[in-house]
């Protein structure tokens, strides 16, 4: 047995020696240029393997870091417009559920399935949820089940952010007034967007539009922009997140409509609230108050109007989308991934 092993080992060494000798002779016979080329390709391949191996998944960007990451080519008049035919907000429901489930699977592979039960259930039965919802609440894109349902929320729902916004009321109002002076020089200053209404005029000045920051507008209102970065529950990393200044001129009516999802609370901080202005959510009317936040679920049928006179001036609110308080931290992270802008 030992003899057979020694013979086999000797044969292996002979084979290895012959292989090495053959390789050395091949290199000697090759042109030096070819050898250098092969060596360069080998180095490039090793570098590529190292680079791919150490690359981490793209992190979710914060509102602060989005300022440096927006392509100016997708901005029109300072506002972000959808550029992708794959956008989950614009896609028909036929292909939406399949895309969402693919995104959820990708998230679970990178992170974990832990805490994903409700989101998995929502995607699996999304068609049934959306078709069976009562007409008073019918989100257009995504419904997360088992969330408390109410048209309006108390200030305590997101107490920290509400109090922070109200403490900075004067700073936001001051920056708005500086912006609004430009209307005396032209009909629509740069950065403002006109929204469709059956009567009157509705203007918005976006800071975050469908999860993407608008750098030019944020630079014009630095204190408001910094405030957004201080909010704990601001939705800044997915297509359901928005922040803007919203202006209704006297005589304006916003057509009744539904928001895209129930995972958020829309917060309005009153900046200028003349009489004759009202918000109606789920059939319940409420009035804004200057320096105070009004929280509501915009997946309910809602409308707003300004029936005041021209002397009353516009109704102005600072609007920001906050997370619904009953969406857990793990779910927020997953939803940011699944509904990331451009995904």
Automatic annotation (TrEMBL):
<dbReference type="InterPro" id="IPR051821">
    <property type="entry name" value="Asp/Asn_beta-hydroxylase"/>
</dbReference>
<keyword id="KW-0472">Membrane</keyword>
<dbReference type="GO" id="GO:0016020">
    <property type="term" value="C:membrane"/>
</dbReference>
<dbReference type="InterPro" id="IPR027443">
    <property type="entry name" value="IPNS-like_sf"/>
</dbReference>
<feature type="domain" description="Aspartyl/asparaginy/proline hydroxylase">
    <location>
        <begin position="166"/>
        <end position="325"/>
    </location>
</feature>
<comment type="function">
    <text>May function as 2-oxoglutarate-dependent dioxygenase.</text>
</comment>
<protein>
    <recommendedName>
        <fullName>Aspartate beta-hydroxylase domain-containing protein 2</fullName>
    </recommendedName>
</protein>
<comment type="similarity">
    <text>Belongs to the aspartyl/asparaginyl beta-hydroxylase family.</text>
</comment>
<keyword id="KW-1133">Transmembrane helix</keyword>
<keyword id="KW-0560">Oxidoreductase</keyword>
<dbReference type="GO" id="GO:0051213">
    <property type="term" value="F:dioxygenase activity"/>
</dbReference>
<dbReference type="InterPro" id="IPR007803">
    <property type="entry name" value="Asp/Arg/Pro-Hydrxlase"/>
</dbReference>
<keyword id="KW-0735">Signal-anchor</keyword>
<dbReference type="Pfam" id="PF05118">
    <property type="entry name" value="Asp_Arg_Hydrox"/>
</dbReference>
<keyword id="KW-0223">Dioxygenase</keyword>
<keyword id="KW-0812">Transmembrane</keyword>
């Amino acid at each position: 047995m030992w003899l057979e092993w020694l013979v086999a080992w000797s044969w292996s060494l002979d084979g290895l020696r012959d292989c090495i000798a053959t390789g050395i002779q091949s290199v000697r016979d090759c042109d030096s240029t070819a050898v250098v080329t092969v060596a360069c390709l080998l180095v490039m391949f090793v570098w590529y393997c190292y680079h791919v191996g150490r690359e981490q998944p793209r992190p979710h960007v914060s509102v602060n870091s989005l300022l440096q990451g927006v392509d100016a080519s997708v901005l029109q008049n300072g506002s972000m417009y959808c550029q992708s035919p794959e956008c989950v907000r614009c896609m028909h429901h036929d292909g939406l559920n399949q895309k969402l489930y693919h995104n959820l699977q990708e998230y679970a592979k990178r992170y974990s399935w832990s805490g994903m039960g409700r989101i998995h259930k929502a995607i699996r039965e999304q068609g049934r949820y959306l078709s069976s919802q009562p007409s008073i609440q019918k989100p257009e894109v995504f419904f997360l089940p088992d969330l408390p349902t109410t048209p309006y929320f108390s200030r305590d729902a997101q107490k920290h952010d509400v109090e922070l916004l109200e403490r900075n009321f004067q700073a936001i109002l001051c920056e708005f007034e500086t912006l609004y002076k430009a209307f005396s020089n032209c009909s629509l200053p740069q950065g403002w967007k006109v929204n469709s209404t059956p009567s009157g005029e509705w203007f918005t000045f976006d800071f975050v539009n469908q999860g993407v920051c608008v750098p030019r507008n944020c630079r014009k209102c630095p204190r408001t922009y910094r405030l957004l970065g201080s909010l704990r529950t601001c939705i800044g990393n997915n297509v359901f997140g928005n922040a803007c200044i919203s202006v209704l001129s006297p005589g304006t009516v916003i057509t009744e409509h539904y928001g895209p999802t129930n995972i958020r609370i829309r917060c309005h901080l009153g900046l200028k609230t003349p009489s004759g202005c009202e918000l109606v959510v789920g059939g319940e009317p409420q009035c804004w108050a200057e320096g105070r936040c009004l929280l509501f679920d915009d997946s309910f049928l809602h409308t707003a109007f300004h029936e005041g006179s021209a002397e009353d001036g516009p109704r102005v609110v600072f609007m920001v989308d906050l997370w619904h308080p009953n969406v857990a931290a793990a779910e927020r992270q997953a939803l940011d991934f699944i509904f990331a802008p451009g995904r």
